[in-house]
Amino acid sequence: MERVPILKIGDILLVSIQLDMSDQTAVQLQEDLAERIVATGCHGVIIDITALDIVDSFVGRMLSTIASISKVLDAETVVVGMRPAVAITLVELGLSLNGIRTALNVERGMELIAAARADEHEYQLDDDPDAETATP
Amino acid sequence: MTAGVDLGPQAQAIRSDEDVVRVRQLVRAVAVAVKLSLVDQTKVVTAASELARNTLVYGGGGSVEVTTVDNGRRRGVQIVFVDSGPGIPDLDLAFTDGYTTGGGLGLGLSGARRLVDDFHIDTSAETGTRITVTKWSR
């Protein structure tokens, strides 16, 4: 079985799915990501699906599950790079991807995560000096 | 009669997760060969992925045959999924969005039907399930 690599960039885990995943590979990615979030203490996960030709209900469910798991582990998930044809097909398939944040590309995804973290810090009155620079 | 690559019928067994991936790749190749638009390619490959997974999970495995079809005006891709599983006892229920017996999202069958142009299903406890779908070029 092939495995999807997970890269750590600062406070973010970046997953760029470059292969046509079998269901087993998708489930493995879910587990690997949960472990990496805990091991690294990262607060953001970006899943880049630019290379995916299709997102069927299984992969859609995997994306929702990853978003839920990471939320429980105090990390934000953003799915980036969805192709227009994939978006059209997903809607017709009936998949709403509830609870998933999306952005057009990795850069915007990183901005979204930084903004979400900044909001949270403000709310918690955290005195983390990084929080201010992350505010847009 | 028609221009372009003419692929004969292509068969693929569905016995494992990896076979579902192979079905997607096979359907995409044929959809490209009959010059479906990118959106239609995406739709038919997605539908095939759902149905191939159903064949594996609910039908206990089976096979698929992918063929190019031509009705004189348009070309298309036709996919036949066959399994000798337990059949689908209540089709109306099975086509309801969100209904599942397998722990999935319950969108496979109903969603796949929305993504193709023609959808035909024969199912019984004795012979298993046979689903034929067709996507035509615009």
Tag the structure with descriptive keywords.
heterodimer; A: 136 residues; alpha/beta; Transcription Regulator spoIIAA; five-stranded mixed sheet; 5 helices; 5 strands; 16% strand; globular; B: 138 residues; alpha+beta; Heat Shock Protein 90; 4 helices; HATPase_C_sf (chain B); HATPase_dom (chain B)
Tell me what you see in this structure.
The complex is a heterodimer of chains A (136) and B (138). Chain A has a single domain (6-104), classed as Transcription Regulator spoIIAA. Chain A starts with 5 loop residues before the first strand and ends with a helix. Chain A has a five-stranded mixed β-sheet with strand order 1-2-3-4-5, sandwiched between helices. Chain A is built from five helices and five strands. Chain A has helices at 23-40, 57-72, 84-93, 106-124, 130-134, and strands at residues 6-9, 12-16, 44-48, 76-80, 101-103. Chain A is globular, with a radius of gyration of 15 Å. In chain A, strand 3 (44-48), helix 2 and strand 4 form a beta-alpha-beta unit. With 136 residues, chain A is of the alpha/beta class. Chain B is of the alpha+beta class and 138 residues long. Chain B has a single domain, classed as Histidine kinase-like ATPase, C-terminal domain (Heat Shock Protein 90, 2-Layer Sandwich), CATH 3.30.565.10. Chain B has a five-stranded antiparallel β-sheet with strand order 1-2-3-5-4, with helices on one face. The longest helix of chain B has 20 residues, at 38-57. Chain B is globular. Chain B starts with 9 loop residues before the first strand and ends with a strand. The mean pLDDT of chain B is 91. Classes of the chains: A alpha/beta (136), B alpha+beta (138). Chain A: Residues 2-113 form the STAS domain.
